[in-house]
Each structure stands twice: as C-alpha cells, then as structure tokens.
Automatic annotation (TrEMBL), chain A:
Transmembrane segments: 23-43, 188-210
InterPro entries membership: AA_ABC_transptr_permease_3TM, ArtM/GltK/GlnP/TcyL/YhdX-like, MetI-like, MetI-like_sf
Membrane protein topology class: Multi-pass membrane protein
Organism encoding this protein: Ferruginivarius sediminum
The name this protein goes by in its record: Amino acid ABC transporter permease
Assigned protein family: Belongs to the binding-protein-dependent transport system permease family. HisMQ subfamily.
GO molecular function, one term: transmembrane transporter activity
UniProt keyword terms in alphabetical order: Amino-acid transport, Cell membrane, Membrane, Transmembrane, Transmembrane helix, Transport
UniProtKB/TrEMBL annotation, chain B:
GO BP terms: amino acid transport
Signal peptide bounds: none
Keyword Membrane attached: yes
Domain of life of the source: Bacteria
Name this polypeptide is given: Amino acid ABC transporter permease
Similarity comment text for this entry: Belongs to the binding-protein-dependent transport system permease family. HisMQ subfamily.
ABC transmembrane type-1 domain boundaries: 17-201
Keywords in alphabetical order: Amino-acid transport, Cell membrane, Membrane, Transmembrane, Transmembrane helix, Transport
Subcellular location: Cell inner membrane; Cell membrane
The organism of origin for this protein: Ferruginivarius sediminum
Cellular compartments per GO CC: ATP-binding cassette (ABC) transporter complex
Parts of the chain that traverse the membrane: 12-39, 59-76, 179-197
TrEMBL record, chain C:
A GO CC term attached to the entry: plasma membrane
Name recorded for this polypeptide: Amino acid ABC transporter ATP-binding protein
Organism: Ferruginivarius sediminum
Chief location category: membrane
Localization per record: Cell membrane
Keywords of this entry: Amino-acid transport, ATP-binding, Cell membrane, Membrane, Nucleotide-binding, Transport
Bilayer disposition of the protein: Peripheral membrane protein
High-level lineage: Bacteria, Pseudomonadati, Pseudomonadota, Alphaproteobacteria, Rhodospirillales
Domain ABC transporter per the UniProt entry, residue ranges: 5-237
Length: 223, 222, 254
C-alpha cells in the first residue's frame, strides 16, 4: 500500500499537469457546442426548408457515428483537402461538432416545451420574434435544459480522453506514458480513473449549484 | 481508382464490422444481465448491497470509457491473461452494466406501487411478484432508454481501437496506412457503416417495442 | 375627428370555416366597449386580428388614423396592449421584471424610470406587496392583475381584454373585474371580450353583440340588455343570465 502511495505521489504531479489541457479542450468544445447547438436548434424549429434539412442531416450524422471516427476524419482526413490542424485543435473541433448535435436536440426539446402563450405575449407587447426568443423563450428554455445539458457536458468531459488517440497530451496520454516507463499500468490507470472521477463529480456539483441558483418557481423541469 | 481500393478493402472492413458487432453483442449482454441484477439489488437488496451497487455504478459512470479500456487491457492483464477483445468486453460491458442498471432501476420504479400491493394481496411472494408482475411492465418501459444505450454502445465499440482490437475503426486506420491515404473516403465509408447499423438497430428495437406493447403502454413519441 | 381605433371589414377563415365575416367597429378615446356573444362566434379571433396576433384575411385596422401593416406592427403593438385569458405572464421573471421588461427593452426606458412606472401600475392593481414574487407563486386573480399592470406600464392607447376572467375560479373574478372597472372610470380606452354582466352593465359605454361572425347589434348597456332588438340576443342574454357562474367556471371559448 505504501508502495502504491509512493508511486502515486511520484507520478500524480505529471498527470495533474494534464488537467489544464483536458479542461481547456472540454471548455472550448462545449462552449462551441453550446452556440452552434443553439443555431442548429433554431434552424430545426424556425428554419426554412434548406436550413431545416441541413441541420437535421448534420444532427443525424454526428449522432449516428462514433466520435473517434469523426476525430480521425478531421485530424487525418482533412489534410487531404488542405486543412491541417494540430492534434489539440482537431480534438476541439471534433468534440465541439459532436456535442453541438446533441446539445441542439436538448435545446430544441426545451424551446418547444415553453408554452406558445409566452411568445404570443411577447409579440403582443411589440417584441420582434428575435427579442421574444432572447428575452422570453431562451431564458426559460435554458433553465429547463440544465439537467440534460449537465449530463451532456459531463459525458463530453469524459470523451476528451478520446483525444489521446490522436496524440493530445491530456491526462490519459500522460498516464500511458508513465505506464510504459514504469510498467505499472494498473496503478497508473487507477490513479487516472480517480482523477476523472473527482473531475466529473466536481463539475456535476458545480452544475447542480447553477441549477439551484437559477431555479424559478413554476419552471422546474418535467423531464 | 479510389472506389477500387474501397472495393478491394471491403472484406477487411466487413470483417472489422463483424468484430465490432460481436463486441457490441457481448458487452450489451453482459450489461443486460448484470445491469438487471444490479437494479434489483439496488431496489430490493439489503442496504450494504445497495450501497455497494451504487458505488459500482458511480465509479463506472464517472470514469471515461477509454480509461476503463486501458485499465482492463494493460492493468488487469498484469494479473489475469486475456485478449484485447476480452478486455474490451469487460471494460465496456461493466460500464454498460452501470448505465443499464440505471435504466432498469428507473423502469422498475415507474411501475405504480399498487401493482406490487395487488400482487402480494393475492398471495404472491415478493420474488414472484417482481418476476411476474413488476418486471414484465418495467421492461416495456425500459426499451426506449435501452435503445439509446444500444446506440451509444455501438459507437463506444470504436474506442476498443485504442487497445488494438481490430474492429471497424482500426481496420479503417490500417487501410489508410497501407494504401497511403484516401483517409476521407475510407473513414467516410466506416462512418456510413456505423450509421447504417445504428439505424437498423434502432429500427429493429422500435419494431420490437411495438410488438410487445399492450394498451396502457403505448410508446412515447419516437 | 376620427375614432382612436377603427376596425373595418375584418374577415378570417380557418380552412373552410369563416370565423369573421366582415366585422367593423370603432372605439373612441376613453370609451370602454364589451364584446359579447355565444362561443365560437369569433370574438377572440376579432381581438387577435386587431393587433395581428392572428393576421386577418381581409380588412383594415387603424390606430389614430395610422393603418396597421406588417412594417409598423411592432410599433403599433406597443400602443395596443393585450390581456390574455390565461395571463401569459413570463414564467421566469419576477412580478416587477414582468412589468419592466416591456418599458425597458421595447420603449427604452432607464431602469429607474421603468421601475417607478411598474410600481405605480402595481399600486393601481393593488399588488405592490408582490413585487418580488414569481408568477407561479400567485393566485390566478393576482396573475391577471399583474398582467393588467404589465399592459398599463406600456402606457398604451388602448387595451384589448380577451376573456380576462374566464380562466379564473368564480371567487377570483371579482378582484379582476374591480380593477377593470377602475380603469374604465379613469378613462382608459378598452375593448373587452367578456361575459361579466356586472362589468358590462356598470362600466361599459357600449355593448357589441356578435353572432356567427357578424356584429348583430350594438348599443349602450341599458338598451342592449333591457331592450335587445334581436331574438338571438335575447336568447343569449337569458342563457348567460341563468348561468353566469357556470359560464365563468367553464371558461367559455377556451
């Protein structure tokens, strides 16, 4: 046991040095996914035919295929047409595009769950549709979507480990390096599992607090 | 020219797909059996078992699939010899156990209390009531979420790539390496294969849901 | 001198069914008109056509001589407030923010101006103590009073009331009717679709009776209630006379 603790103490700093990379990857990807997801949801709800079909096709494709394939496609494939990215950027793009498809569907569900009367009242008072969306519908929809969005965000935090497959030196990649140096794979991956566990639990807790802080009577989520 | 390559490599891709499907079937079955057991333990079991179950669930849902794969492949094989395929089945299967137990737990809890009371009132023991009355209803509720689980595990099989299981994605990568390029086309075809299997699986499960539906269990909007 | 609100020849079809078959009416400044009639005769549709929440198929609406067209729609709507049957308070906003959002975001008032105005209107509907509440924490009657305050805060030229009491339990209609009576007596221009006989008798300047997509007759309350010209009007009045309570509870036209 003390042997394990020594091992952990020795290598934990190197692993933890990957946390900023993991978090940066995650935050950039889900932020991109958030805004692009909103655009996609908008297209699916309010869009004209071409926008509707384009967004629907996009969502189907990205939800219907594995993220690793998407990442390899972007990192190894796009250079064939002259678009070359470093591993980190490629990973941000892949995870961002992937999560936007999922987020879009959550947003769409939440927006459509807001009673029509809210938009009608906004229009009746002289707001444009865009104003109604921004001031009335979105603030309600975004509150409702928090639980689902939190799940999605945490899922993506775990998915950042896939970036290891294209050579991003985030947490998982660092663990593997140590594994090959020391051949104590079981221990090092146990440590890394614990690091992820703590990260996801922390993020879940933070998002839970956000959910409580922004809660409004009458807007609790019916799932 | 490109299509010729694809055509020539098709047997490899199909073989990769076959491996992926085997992996999927194995991990989902493992997850089904253990997940159902775990759900029953968490609802009806002694509190020590219940807490162990919840801890298991938390751990396997809190750790990325890639890390679990590496842990089982590199780590556990320090103690027990097993193939990368076996490691993938265990890692992804136990993870699926955690997710499926959550699905089954929710489904069992969605069966109204009165059903259990009625069953016991007519003299059934708790075990029989669960087996004959509660589960048949709960499993109908579970199919919808289970379809989602199917989709996400199908996609998760591609992660076995990182421990060298020669499934569909790894085959794609081999072809790309051996033919020096054609990445877009090859991974495009690979993606298409996942897409089609996903669609077919969803369609079949949806049909199945329709088959076993009884009045009062109409499926929710698709 | 033309009327404040002029509605002319409004027609509206839903599929094969023509709900409004060319309806015209005028509303003078300071006038309160009540529109009555059996359910399904297009009263609510008429109201919604006036501010184009439901665009009419034909006909024109003029406010202060200016014709309502898609281009000036949002500006016109700022001057034509609407009170809904089911309140439609903004769920995520506190009472105060429900009232200030229009003045702030649409009229461009400063925070303090909007706040002062909101407080003034809340006093007017007797709910100054509920500033910090969320809609879900209020009774139906209180919600409707807040929505009236929200309408007033836009300082509209006219307020359209679409069955403002029909979603309320009978014991809660009184508080809303009282607020509306006060507004009428203070000279607010209002067009009200409602079966509240009490309000119509005491506060309305004129009653409009609609049936089958037409205006059948209109006139001062005394005339219309006590000496109706048409048999259909008489029958309708007998019916609501019998079941004022029932009609309110059933939420006519909902």
């Amino acid at each position: 046991m003390s042997d394990f603790l020594d091992f952990a103490a020795e290598h934990l700093p190197y692993i933890l040095a990957g946390v900023p990379t993991t978090l940066a990857l995650w935050i950039l990807a889900i932020t991109f996914g958030f805004f692009f997801g909103l655009v996609l949801a908008w297209c699916r709800i309010y869009g004209k035919k071409p926008a509707y079909w384009a967004s629907t096709g996009y969502i189907e494709i990205f939800r219907g295929t594995p993220m690793l394939v998407q990442m390899l496609f972007i990192y190894l494939g796009l250079p064939e047409v002259g678009l070359t990215f470093d591993p980190f950027t490629a990973a941000v793009i892949a995870i961002g595009l992937n999560t936007s498809a999922y987020q879009a569907e959550y947003f769409r569900g939440a927006i459509q769950s807001i009673p029509q009367g809210q938009m009608t009242a906004a229009r009746a008072m002289g707001m444009s549709d865009l104003q109604g969306l921004i001031f009335i519908v979105l603030p309600q929809a975004l509150r409702r979507v928090i639980p689902q969005w939190s799940n999605e965000a945490i899922l993506e935090l775990k998915f950042t480990s896939i970036a290891f497959a294209i050579g991003v030196t985030e947490i998982t990649a660092r663990a593997e390096t140590i594994g090959f140096k020391t051949f104590r794979f079981f221990e090092i991956f146990l440590i890394v599992a614990a690091v992820y566990f703590v990260l996801t639990a922390t993020v879940a807790q933070i998002l839970h607090i956000v959910e409580r802080r922004t809660a409004v009577p009458g807007l609790t989520l019916g799932r | 020219m490109i299509w010729e390559i694809i055509w020539n490599q098709m047997p490899y891709l199909l073989h990769g797909l076959w491996i992926a499907l085997q992996l999927l079937a194995a991990l989902l079955s493992l997850g089904l059996v253990l997940g159902l057991a775990l759900a029953l333990i968490e609802i009806y079991g002694h509190w020590t078992l219940r807490w162990t179950g919840i801890l298991f669930e938390r751990v396997f849902r809190g750790v990325p699939a890639v890390v679990l794969l590496l842990l089982f492949y590199y780590g556990v094989t320090d103690f027990i010899e097993m193939s990368s395929f076996m490691a993938a089945v265990l890692a992804l299967g136990l993870r699926s156990t955690a997710y499926q137990s959550q699905i089954f737990r929710g489904a069992i809890q969605s069966v109204p209390q009165g059903q259990m009371m009625a069953a016991q009132a007519m003299g059934m023991g708790r075990a029989r009531a669960v087996g004959w009355i509660i589960l048949p209803q709960a499993l109908r509720h579970a199919i919808g979420p289970w379809t989602n689980e199917f989709s996400s595990e199908l996609k998760a099989t591609s992660l076995a790539y990182v421990i060298g299981v020669v499934e569909l994605t790894r085959q794609g990568k081999y072809i790309v390496s051996s033919t020096q390029g054609n990445v877009l086309i090859v991974f495009g075809v690979v993606a298409l294969m996942y897409f089609v299997v996903n669609r077919l699986g969803n369609w079949a499960l949806y049909k199945f849901e329709g088959r076993i539906t009884v009045p009062g269990f109409e499926r929710r909007a698709a | 001198m033309s009327a404040l609100l002029e509605v002319e020849g409004i027609r509206k079809k839903y599929g094969q069914f023509e709900v409004l078959k060319g309806v015209s009416l005028q509303l003078e400044r300071g006038q309160a008109k009540v529109v009555m009639g059996p359910s399904g005769t297009g009263k609510s549709t008429l109201l919604r056509c006036i501010n184009y929440l439901t665009p009419p198929d034909a006909g024109t609406v003029r406010l202060d001589g200016e014709e309502v067209v898609p281009r000036n729609l949002n500006r016109i709507r700022q001057q034509v407030a609407f009170v809904f049957q089911d309140f439609n308070l903004f769920t995520h906003l506190r009472v105060i923010d429900n009232i200030t959002i229009g003045p702030r975001r649409i009229l461009g008032l400063s925070k303090t101006e909007a706040r002062d105005r909101a407080m003034r209107e809340l006093e007017r509907v007797g709910l100054a103590d509920k500033v910090r509440a969320y809609p879900a924490e209020l009774s139906g009657g209180q919600q409707q009073r807040v929505s009236i305050a929200r309408a007033l805060a836009m300082e509209p030229k006219v307020i359209l009331f679409d069955e403002p009491t029909s979603a309320l339990d009978p014991e809660l209609t009184g508080e809303v009717v009282n607020v509306m009576k006060r507004l009428a007596s203070e000279g607010m221009t209002m067009l009200v679709v409602s079966h509240e006989i009490g309000f119509a008798r005491s506060a309305a300047d004129e009653i409009v009776f609609m049936d089958g997509g037409h205006i059948l007759e209109q006139g001062p309350p005394a005339q219309l209630f006590d000496a109706p010209q048409h048999e259909r009007t008489r029958r309708f009045l007998r019916m609501i006379g019998d079941q004022v309570g029932d009609a309110a509870a059933a939420g006519e036209g909902a």
